[in-house]
Amino acid sequence: MINEDKLKEVIAAVLAVEASEVKDDSSSDTIETWDSFAQMNLILALEEEYDISVPDDEAANLSSYPLIRLVVKELTGDE
Amino acid sequence: MEKYDQIKKLQEENLPLGSLMKIIRDLESHGEFQQSITFGLSSNITIDQLGIFLKKHSMMANVGANIIQGGYDSHLSNIDSFIEKKVDNVVLVNFFDNLLPSFEAQLEHINEDMIQEQRERFRGELGVVLEKSKGFKSVYISLMDKFNKPSANNYNQKIKKIIASFNEVIQDYALEYANVRILNIHSVIADLGYKNSYDHRFYYKFKAPFKNLFLDRLAREIVLESRGLGSYFYKAIVLDCDNTLWGGIIGEDLIEGIKLAPYDYPGNVFWYAQQEFLKMQKNGMILCLCSKNNAPDVDDVLMNHPHQIIKDQHLIIKKVNWNNKAQNLQEISQELNIGLDSIIFLDDSPFECESVRSQLPEVKVFQVPKNPHEYFDVIHGLKELVLPGASSKESANKTEQYKKKVLLEGEKNKFTNQDDYLKSLDLKAILVKDNPKTIQRVSELTQKSNQFNLTTKRYSETDIESFINSDTHAVYTLNVSDKFGDSGLTGIAIIQYEGDTAIVDSFLMSCRVIGRGIEFGFWHDVVNDAKIKDCKFFQSNYLRTLKNEQVADFYDRLGIPLLREEDGKRSYRADIREVKLKTQSHVEIIYDK
């Protein structure tokens, strides 16, 4: 299992919000700071944190918290 | 975590981006800095990340940094907004391959004249930018490098030569404007390697070609170049003797036994170190000695050792005695009348280093490593602190050459004011109303344009189609071109007619073309059309978003009176017969009815 608190902390740090603000319904539509620059940082931060490499087609999917969780799980082989 | 611990953590190598951003955020909300400085960043690529790393390195120098990100690929209007926002320093990053789309790939088949034209365009625009930038403390401008993978064949040599000719333009200006500092990215890339510097993935997706590792280093160079943003200014280096100026201990090994010969290891390391110290002295640093020895022994080496480089005449003060080193350093500071914080102390003994650190924390202490070959890195670190701009100074002998060149070229391609420059561009904008062929592009631009967008309303193709076909709306598009080429459909105004009022529902332009007066030029025709439709009033709005601050006062500048302002909305209204809109002469507007 991935540690969701840790995942939320990484996302929160990049988006400059509190970890408690990252919830299941969080996405680029609900968090104002989630723009394309933040998107790029998110990819980099997740890759560093989990030692993964996000493929291009997955990168486009990282636009909400549940999708990020899914992609990170998939890439870390942690189902 | 305390501020001190957080700043210390910033120095860690390979600190993950998430942690870095968190520490910076914490420090910004709690940490207090001696001073704060504002950077304006302007680039023809995405370099937002540089802002993060500039904050990091500024904070490490105990300086808080504010970052103003300029709009993408619009130096001219960015500089205007930097002036308005009173930024201290500007960082200009030009990326060669993006001067035109995949410019490097184009170089092979476009002709020499075309390249020459591009270079002159670059020269013209940069000249105006730097002329306007005279009031900033410093303007850091990066040289440009090759983006395509390095290889040893001739074709690459050709690209290199062309890029070098663009870099010469930058270097010429650096000689002309005192506040311009060159960032030599070649040396950063050489040190990090190509793979650690460039990111193809984000270049094509986000126009962000540089890896964070590179931007981190670039930010570090900027802070070093400015002597920690003015937080330090070292004036004197105080050197120990044994195992610092030479290998071995003079009191035990005697003059014949110390290691200082340029031909043997480890003597060659110390001989090299002395060469570097001498270079620092020639560049204005004060050299002093502070050594626990018998003074005559040290004097003997200074005078009589065949390979000794640093001689008596290079040394201002010699404290060769058995006193506490902290006390000696204090005396040096008083005798030279400089602050302890302007002194660098170099010693091989961990005990002496620690004792100075704890008694005189203001003094910058470097310890000579046990392994002589590691001395190289220490000297390099020292040089970075005392010789900012070392890279540009090393090419100081080129100065004369450049001066000559500037004289030869005369004023041929130089524009000292923006109007002359803009006039020389032969700007044309073709204004078209309700053209069904533009539906797709218009919808696309309303969807993605953020910065120069007055109301940020997003429209689908169906929306646009219905506007075009209806009497209550008009969709104007602008196709912009200049003598260098065509920028395509880059401006949109959607007008809604409501009773006797023409309302600007949307107005947006691509950032690539703003700052050239086009945004003002075409309104005359739009207003005329409204008059023909019997409108009595002309009305417009600005709706604030996170990204469109730069156009907050656009309608004020256009000349429409402000009616009211509330909650990020500014409404403007004018009597259509009386309104006097801003005019400009250097853009030819062709209204293609």
What does this structure look like?
The complex is a heterodimer of chains A (79) and B (593). Chain A has 79 residues and is mostly helical. Chain A has 4 helices and no strands. Chain A has one domain: ACP-like (Non-ribosomal Peptide Synthetase Peptidyl Carrier Protein, Chain A, Orthogonal Bundle), CATH 1.10.1200. Chain A is globular, with a radius of gyration of 11 Å. In chain A, helix 1 (4-15) packs antiparallel against helix 2. With 593 residues, chain B is of the alpha/beta class. In chain B, the strands form 3 sheets. Chain B has an 8-stranded mixed beta sheet, with helices on both faces. Chain B starts with a helix and ends with a strand. The interface between A and B is medium-sized, with 18 and 18 residues.
Report the count of strand segments of chain A: 0
In percent, how helical is the residue content of chain B?
40-55%
User: How would you sum up the global shape of chain B?
Assistant: elongated
Oligomeric state of the chains in view: heterodimer
CATH A-level architecture of chain A: Orthogonal Bundle
So what's the CATH class of chain A?
A: Mainly Alpha
Task: Please state how the strands of the largest beta sheet of chain B are arranged side by side.
Answer: 16-17-15-14-13-12-11-18
Radius of gyration of chain B: 30 Å
User: Termini separation of chain B (Å)?
Assistant: 66 Å
Low-confidence stretches of chain B: 390-413
Number of structurally distinct domains of chain B: 3
Largest sheet entry of chain B: 8 strands, mixed
- Overall residue-averaged pLDDT value of chain B: 88
Estimate the strand proportion of chain A.
under 5%
Q: Main sheet of chain A, how many strands, which sense, barrel?
A: none
CATH fold group of the largest domain in chain B: Rossmann fold
Number of strands of chain B: 18
- DSSP helical segment count of chain A: 4
The CATH homologous superfamily name of the largest domain in chain B equals SGNH hydrolase
Rg of chain A, alpha carbons: 11 Å
